[in-house]
């Protein structure tokens, strides 16, 4: 075990972790649509936990500046929704954002309440989940190689996700966290060996997946942590580089040498992704830019990139362009400032405790790397759009808030707490209503999309995420 054991968290936390696990592992109930259902249920559980928490458990995790700026962002969002073409879908997008904030708040409160005991549970869960997914991958790889079929399609090895790029987003969140046991002096040598083997395998899968966004995100996070996070950051960097090299060697063996020896042709080879192609992103980036120029102040409304159909995607695959074209430039600047403020506060704390080798301080570096990698990947991919990635973003941000050293431990303002609770209840209620309303009818929606527009499914809220009206 990596941390000392004492009190146990509330039951809802284990239910949430179970949903994180089930929606990524069990293929019949995984993929984009089922993960959206899991996200809504996690939001409901977290909302119930927040609302039912006693006053003595309420903490002010945000200062007045953050609350004020967040309120302005919410107000601008409501104005954008009011002016949008389909306000009901714009409200759903806002509900998704607020539900993610609900998950963040619940996890932050739970971590602040239980301390390092919850850190042990979190890392044990991450290791277990990644180990199960690795075993799935290895079993599928062995079955493909020894099935007697002369072709190995690497795309079929990534189970549980509608697209292997979404799998890559999940790996961007978890690769930095898997290094934690390797950095703790109390971890046994035998445990370190197995964790390193898992990390190397996880890197092999990240390479085999061919997600350039994952490669970019991890590279940027690794360089930043190496340069800015002291001795602990450099140790994290060395373990990641060593594991990445191990993963590359495993990848070359299982996807190049062994298939060549067995006369098996590998299709969708990750090496084919080593190019500078934008994969049609220039088309959707141009659409987003035209939308920004058309409505710079309030945007077209949350989710409304999906209201203008194109043949590529229902979101721009670029976080700044997406927020600016849907919410407006002022909101984008405010949200960017809030994110930068949070990142800077975390970095300052890392620098303040740069000489510490305590488990919490090492965990903070790992979580910081996870968040940096995901935000970098969001520059070229839909990290802020996909439901499972939204779940992990909420978990990572919530944990960072829960382990942050706040200047004040005072309770949250009572009026603010009640207003915030009411807002979250409304948001989670709308999210649950949308899921219950749409989920039984998704097959018909997808068939209708095929008749109206043709082409591939374009994920947004659902796997078929285009909300544009049918052409006449």
UniProtKB/TrEMBL annotation:
Subcellular localization: Membrane
Keywords: Ligase, Membrane, Transmembrane, Transmembrane helix
Keyword Manganese: no
Topological category with respect to the lipid bilayer: Multi-pass membrane protein
Residue span, O-antigen ligase-related domain: 203-334
Keyword Cytoplasm found: no
Domain of life: Bacteria
A Pfam family reported for this protein in Swiss-Prot or TrEMBL: Wzy_C
InterPro entries assigned to the protein according to its UniProt record, in alphabetical order: O-antigen_ligase-rel_domated (IPR007016), WaaL-like (IPR051533)
Listed GO MF terms: ligase activity
Sequence intervals crossing the membrane: 12-31, 37-53, 65-82, 88-109, 121-146, 166-186, 193-209, 215-232, 239-258, 327-350, 386-403, 415-436
Full protein name: O-antigen ligase family protein
Lineage, highest ranks first: Bacteria, Pseudomonadati, Pseudomonadota, Gammaproteobacteria, Pseudomonadales
